[in-house]
Each structure stands twice: as C-alpha cells, then as structure tokens.
Amino acid sequence: MGSPSHPFTFDDLYKTIIIMISFWSLGKLTSKCGLPALCGEIISGIIVGPHLLDWAPKPDSLMMFGELGLMLLFLEAGLDIDMEMIRLVGKRGVLLSVLASTISLTVGTFFSYCWIFHESSPSRLGSLSRRPPWVLA
Length: 137
Known about the structure:
Layout: H1 10-32, H2 37-48, H3 59-79, H4 83-117, H5 124-130
Helix pairs in contact: 1-2
C-alpha cells in the first residue's frame, strides 16, 4: 500500500481515478437508458467494490466520500421539496408522512436492538438456531 511517510502510492491514485471514471461513465450510460444516474453509480460501486472486484485502494477514505455524497443527496432532496404541494396536501399529509417515518424508525430500532443486544455470546449463528432474535425471554 505504501510506507507511513507516503500513505498513498501511484497505484492507489490510479485505482481511485479508474473508480471515479467508472462511476461517471456508468451513471451517464444509465441516464441515457432512461434510469437515474444514481442507479449506474450504485451498480458501478457494487462492481468495483469489495463484493466483486475489490479494487478500492483505501476503503475507509472512499467510505468518507460515500458519506459526503449521501449528505449532498439529502441536501439536494431537501432543496427539491415543492412547498406548494405541501400546502396542497395540508396538515393531514404532513402528519401522515411524519407518522409513517416515525413508525418505521421505531420498528427498525426495536428489531435491531433485539437482534444485536439480546444475545451476549460472540457466536451469532448459534443464537439464531435456538430462537428468533425478537423473543426476549
């Protein structure tokens, strides 16, 4: 990978550029097919990521770029909110969307808590064969 004084090598830089070009080109290809560019970028990430080719030179730093991209995606989605449509659906529509988000977040948190924190043994496979993770007794 590189020595501590030079944490990045030319090979790392080359692979990162190839990954970024593949994201861009597959995004353009899927947008020409009528799909969002994000679909192509996700497919490209699956191909060059650890699941298939494992080309990511520094996975931690690429995860940081992914988190930054996710934040920018949420920012863009927030900027695209049509306030006129919200006024049209009124309080009832807004209440329904907030309630649906709250219920799904609560149910997901409950099941993840039961799955992760219930069994204290290091082997999760053994605990799965005995009982479902949501059974607390």
